[in-house]
Amino acid sequence: MIFSSMSFIVFLMAVLFLYAATDNYRQRAAIILVASLVFYGSWKPSYLLLLITSLTLNYGFYRTLQHSPSRAWLSLALVINLGVLVFFKYLGLFFQTLITMGGYFQFSVPVESPSWAQWALPLGVSFYTFHMLSVMIDVYRGNWVRPISFRAWSMYVTFFPHMIAGPILRASELVEQLEKLEPLKLDAVRLGALIFIGGLIKKTLLADNLAGIVEPLYAHPEQLNFFTSWLATLAFALQIYFDFSGYSEMAVGLARMFGVTLPRNFLYPYISRSVKEFWQRWHITLSRWLRDYLYISLGGSHCSFPRNMGNLMITMLLGGLWHGAGWNFVFWGFLHGSYLVGHRLLLHVYTWAGVTAGSITDRTLSWLGWPLTFILVCFTWVFFRANTFPDAWHISATMLGLAQPSGAIHVIRLSEQMIIAAALLVALLEPHIVAWFQRQGPLNWWRVASPVRGFAYAALVLALVVFGGDTQKFIYFDF
Description:
The chain is mainly α.
């Protein structure tokens, strides 16, 4: 079930009905936990075996670390969890890389990866593994001392609004809320529904329509010229933003219906004026996780300048690899790491040149940083989206004017260009739209006359039916 499907809406209505009928906390917790397991199992029941095994084993590690926060126990937990991720996510990449290197260096390797290495990646395994690791690391560091019951631990990991694709949460952000689940409140359901609808619009009207444009373009990179390669990449940049931010807002809305507050995961990333700012606005909870548990563990910025640059690069390389089992993702991380290193060096140049904060020069450079950042980020998306590494190289070369199309050029219709332009306009105006909506007060909507609200709902349903794209799974479900 994906959030934008009718089957999920029916599932949600049933869960809300059962939750509303409960009399006490135990019943409410049981409804949430069972609903989460049913939701996860609906994708593939066999995934539940790995999830429950991981839940139980890691709870044992958590309890052990709570009583004896030793480096040995934490290291064992890290090795086992990261080993599971490597086994399910990267074993195929290992064999494929071995085969490719064998062709270059003339040594004997299997003709193809063994069938037992071609596991289907269990849904959400990267996300729920990161959730459990964050608690254990926090316990070891002394940042989390409250005991967590197995029931609360299970709900924290499996809470269905966020378990498949985030936001990636710490225990301090969710456990206490799940330990105090309150009866259903009408205002919470209303506000959650409004947030959910906003995400649904992003996903169905924008991301899914853009997907229909992006897929044929990236399927035939040899048919792209300079203009169409840039337009295809712009379309994907907008698609992945509306797809993932739409999912995140739907997750926030769903949680709010049950009285649980989740943090924002996106904050208008395409208005960023530097790549550093972009990562403060894009997939915020993952950026924070990588910063707090990887970058700082490597030494962060409290070290020599060369080592600090190395820490940045390692963090982004591993962040790229986390996104997918392919060298194109590693190179995507390398590009972002290079941008961040370049930005850090540029700040030193500004200081050396005497550019002060708030000066005309500083403001001018800041404004020029927006189009440059947007172009640089769009360029990196090629390596995120291309079907193969060679395809990514070809498309990026075409975007730089270093390659030409072979055969017929793929023509992007005027209607498709209009969809891309409309999506770009929405992405740039979104901060102003949200600010206006917040000034009006979300719950004031329910004070609007019933006929007006009814007309708005009918118009929304009509728009979703007429203009909604073919239902697509969320992009980040693959990670």
